[in-house]
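Re: the 134-residue chain
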Amino acid sequence: MNTEMYQTPMEVAVYQLHNFSISFFSSLLGGDVVSVKLDNSASGASVVAIDNKIEQAMDLVKNHLMYAVREEVEVLKEQIRELVEKNSQLERENTLLKTLASPEQLEKFQSRLIPEEPTPESPQVPEAPGGSAV
């Protein structure tokens, strides 16, 4: 880095921040690093130019992220459509099976779904390692 042409620490810091920002955003987007030289005679304009470049880079990142989010939303919408379709098919199949089943089969099936009430037993106290209850 050639910082001899910058007279104040602020100019050097702006130059370094600019190079870091452009390198960072370019690496995120897979592009080439863009280099812009700052001129001492127009340091105010250079700061504005740097701000504009940073804003452009941030807009590129924002656009890239929005595109990625839109793609993911489309994938999720497709998965939802598939799941709704499968759910509808299973509901139709369930209805058909209920109509074809005999009352005895339905009763047997219902009894499997409802767990039997457990009989009240005396509470069990865990034993301590020594064999006595604590």
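Residues 11-25+47-112 form one domain.
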